[in-house]
Design goal:
By secondary structure, the chain is mainly α. It is built from six helices and no strands. The protein has helices spanning 2-5, 7-19, 25-41, 44-54, 56-61, 66-85. Helix 3 runs antiparallel to helix 4 and helix 3 packs parallel to helix 6 (66-85). The chain starts with a helix and ends with a helix.
Length: 86
Amino acid sequence: MLERSGITEKMFDAFNLWFGRLRGGLAIVTILLGTAIAAVVGVIAASVTLLNIVCLPPMIKKGYNKSLATGVVCAGGCLGILILRA
């Protein structure tokens, strides 16, 4: 529902406006969005899949290394679960 409604893309765009000027801004945005979504969803696979759909293509377009971008997506998707469980 989050992906189909467009809420996650709007959140990503809003975070990108705040942190876009920083070096590695999209990576920071992906971690923040991933943490928020993972805490709400509660399932690591669902949050990582959603981050792959929403965050990975813009990071690749901006010239991020593919291994760095996928690592950031995995870390963001898992961080929310870790915070939720603690």
